[in-house]
Amino acid sequence: MDGKIILKNVSKVYQKGKIKVEALKNINLEIEKGEFVVIMGPSGSGKTTLLNIIGCLDIPTEGEIIYNGKTLKNLSEDELSEYRKQNISFIFQSFNLIPVLTVKENIELPLVIEKHLSLKEKEKRVLELIEKVGLSGMQDRYPYELSGGQEQRVAIARALVKKPLVVLADEPTANLDSQTAIEIIQIMREMNEKEKTTFIFSTHDPKIEKFAKRIIILKDGSIYSDMRI
Amino acid sequence: MLLKIAIRNVFRHRRRTILTVLVMSVGVVFFIFFDSLFIGIDKMLIEELLKYQDGAIVIYSKEYAQNKKAYPLDKPIKNPQKIVNLVKSFKDIEVTFRTNFLAELIYFEKSKYIVATAIDPTTDTKVFNLHNKIKEGRFLIDDNQYEILLGKKLADEFGVKVGDTVILSAYTKYNTYNALEFVVCGLLETPVPTINESSVFLTLKCAEELLTLDGSVTSAHIKVPWKKGEKIATYTKKVLYIVERLKKELYSEYEIYSFRELYNDFIVLMDQKKLSSFIIVFFLLLISAVGIANTILMAVYERIKEIGVLMAFGFKPKQIRKLFLLEGVVMGVIGGFLGCVLAVGLNFWLVYSGWNLEALYAEETTGLKASQLGVPVWGRFYGEWNIYAYLFCFCFCILVAVFSSYFPARYASKLQVRDCLKFV
């Protein structure tokens, strides 16, 4: 298993009433395991659509996506769910923590459906991540008791707890002040280094560019540039 | 974890949950209260009628039974001793004989047609409980002739007191008219309104003088003891067994009725009343079902983002459905439990204090006599504990909750993850 993600000739067309919107046009992309990829581009350039397709949240109109050498073409909703469960995690712009769960419970949430892990193992992973993202002592707090930066740290821990192949983040720093945004990206980068987890995230923020190993710029649904730094 | 999320989500919107759950609880309280009351009324109705009016089994001659509403004195029980001997073969059961007849009660210028009952004071007390319900004066004594017991309400209506003399006139067995004066020895106040309002009791010896009965009686009344706490169904089974055995011996000459047959009309009436109250409860639970469905549906709309997040992390549609179903179940459990707890309090009051319906429908305010209210016994009604009603309600609440939350839960599970995440 090489952990490689390959997008072959991926296009996505949305039908909005009688109008067809081409969100992605013939994207060809290979992302190696452990990469830290930033996707940039103006609004409407297709960043979110690309992340959704990589994250198996949406199906391409044309082309195919290959994870670990396995094509995801023609998979059912349930099979895609199963694939997401095993391989993919998400970090959202507005954190999207479950408000009725504590920090610890939120981080543990993706493991609820992991039947092969013992309770002890789940507990160990959660506590380790709480420490790694710098939330020690806050595990019993509820999301409304946290700052935006702390909430996003919880979201990062939640994304990493099941040890996914890839973490996708759609503008994870958009709701944070610039200092906190840099802290969050640093944590993501640290996790990328330590866990060798692939991170792919979109952003508008040019200050974040310097943390990227690879920058992909989208324009009108096509790859405008793809630079490895 | 899913249960934890469900429980916490249910309490996220407390006011909404409380309202939904309260409607459900009120439905449960209604159901248990009326179930308890109706079981109590059923039991009381049968017990009191058994104690004061008919006994568990009544035997008439076949000819008398065909025309019993006319109280024909010339169609008596031909061989009472045969019945006495037969009854002796059963353990603990007692028999007494009575003669009912139509008579006119006269007191100065007032008169009223009533059904009078001639009894044997010695054996009657073994079958009936009239002797314990003397409000004023005393019960009949076999030796004393020309004495009479009146229902208290009837006496009040006539302005008669203990010691006053009234006239009873009636047709004799040979269809001649006769009238005798009787001294009122006591006034009866029983839970059976018809006895209080229109009954007259005298001894068989007195009746002999008035009606020339030639020692005959028209009905035999059998008491079958009702053990404390014994269910109606068990008691009925016991009585029907005795009736069957009596029928084998007496079938050719006599008609034998169990209380079940005698009070069938009342039992049907009570069943109708039960049905109407259950319909009310059904509608209450229906309202709460709509409430739960609405609450869950609102929860689905409010938490589309959360559904999207869960799906993005690999939760399958059935797990999403389970989460919302669990929320419905949690509400059902709370509603059912709360309803049962509240019902226990009300049930306790009904069982130990009773509900004085007499006070609620006082004759002075409604103008209705107790006998006109459609319930053959009257006074303070006591409920019964019925654990099955509690179990039924609790399970029914959960069932209603599952059913009503199923459709919103299914809707939630069919949402597309990308659509949910558009809200993100």
What does it look like?
The complex is a heterodimer of chains A (229) and B (424). Chain A has 229 residues and is an alpha/beta fold. Chain A is 31% helix and 28% strand. Chain A has helices at 47-54, 77-87, 103-108, 119-132, 148-160, 178-195, and strands at 5-16, 19-31, 36-40, 62-67, 70-71, 88-91, 166-170, 198-202, 214-219, 222-228. Chain B has 424 residues and is of the alpha+beta class. Chain B folds into two domains: 2-45 and 267-421, no CATH class; 57-223, no CATH class. In chain B, a hairpin with a 2-residue loop joins strand 2 and strand 3. The model of chain B has no long low-confidence stretch (mean pLDDT 85). Chain A binds chain B through residues 52, 55, 57-58, 77-78, 81-82, 84-86, 89-90, 92-94, 96, 98-101, 105, 108-110, 112-113, 158, 162, 170, and chain B through 1-2, 4-5, 8-9, 12, 305-306, 308-317, 319, 417-418, 421, 424.
Task: Reconstruct the topology from this structure.
The complex is a heterodimer of chains A (229) and B (424).
Chain A: E1 5-16, E2 19-31, E3 36-40, H1 47-54, E4 62-67, E5 70-71, H2 77-87, E6 88-91, H3 103-108, H4 119-132, H5 148-160, E7 166-170, H6 178-195, E8 198-202, E9 214-219, E10 222-228
Parallel strand pairs in A: 3-8, 3-9, 6-7, 7-8
Antiparallel strand pairs in A: 1-2, 1-4, 4-5, 9-10
Chain B: H1 2-10, H2 14-52, E1 57-61, H3 62-66, H4 80-88, E2 94-107, E3 110-119, H5 121-127, E4 134-137, E5 147-151, H6 152-158, E6 165-171, E7 177-188, H7 193-198, E8 199-203, H8 204-211, E9 219-223, H9 232-250, E10 254-258, H10 259-262, H11 264-302, H12 304-312, H13 317-352, E11 355-356, H14 357-360, H15 363-366, E12 380-381, H16 387-413, H17 417-421
Parallel strand pairs in B: 3-8, 5-7
Antiparallel strand pairs in B: 1-9, 1-10, 2-3, 2-6, 2-9, 4-7, 5-8, 6-7, 11-12
Helix pairs in contact in B: 1-13, 2-11, 2-13, 2-16, 11-13, 11-16, 13-16
